[in-house]
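Supplementary Text 2. Reproducibility record for the structural model of the 346-residue chain.

All settings were left at their defaults, and a single model was retained for analysis rather than an ensemble. We include the record here because the model underlies the residue-level annotations in Supplementary Table 4.
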Amino acid sequence: MRNKTPVFQVMVLFIFCALFKSDYNVRATEFKSAGSAVILAYHRFGEGQFPSTSIRMEQFKSHIAELKRKRYNILPITEIVQKINDRKKLPDFTVGISIDDAYSSVYEKAWPLLREAKIPFTLFISTDAVDRQATGYMSWNQIRELKSAGVTIGSQTKSHKHLPLISIEDVKQEIDKANVRISREIGSRPDLFAYPYGEYNSSVRQLIKDRGFKAAFTQSSGALNNSSDKFALPRFALNERYGGIDRFRLVANSLPLPVDDVLPSDPLLVENPPAFGFTVDSSVGPIKQLACFSSNEGELRLERLGRRIEARFNSMLPKGRSRVNCTLPGPNKRWRWFGIQFLVSN
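Retained model, structure tokens:
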């Protein structure tokens, strides 16, 4: 989740300013947000030496205060996934909290605040770091304590490798060995999975599905709904740069931008720059104000054919992770959001 350019700040300012000038009118019958949810992703807390993965404590406290407003419905991610699987409606303004990597600051700084606020969350762990008793990570005793208090424990593999860049046999070992360790230490096998660094490809996704997980989470931005891919669910990653309260409210109130026929179908790129495109579902209404922003180039040029959107890059994407976020003004001054994280291997 390391974005080295400030273009997303420009994007957020664009959205936030336009929020109050939008002339987007939506029929009342279109506003069907009860089937959607926002999943937030945190990593470290109050660890300023790691600004790309840490949130300032004053920022996190402001997030909790915002979530305690009557508007929001904070649900365990397991319940959100179950409702999606059962195609049951979610309450409006549903939010779920996830935390990756089991850093000690979760136990020492975040959990006391979340426990006091009675906010449920899911903790995704990589077992090697815990087994090694690595500096800055939680212990199994602490993880068991959280589980006993109602925290859901999910898997983030054995050693947190870049899964699309290793052999599928190695991916199997990463998943299976982590499942064994988690089951042995906390007494149950994890049902939820988070891709390390948010990275996956089609083969890795299929393996996660075949291994019996109920859902898997990326670090692509966006809200989810009943039509979302259960094994590539979006999350809004929060850190110092993207943890201000204005942006937090923006993402916590966001709605899905339902799309299909997404190309390329695999986020691990073979062609660079990719021929990126998608078709927006007709339930969304007018899409004239839809815009897409790249973490490398800022706003992208779009070609439109009816509800089909083709985004054009000016240059090749750099090695590593790159993001594209596409947004559209929605009903009641909320924003529809579809994001994708690409990976370039060389």
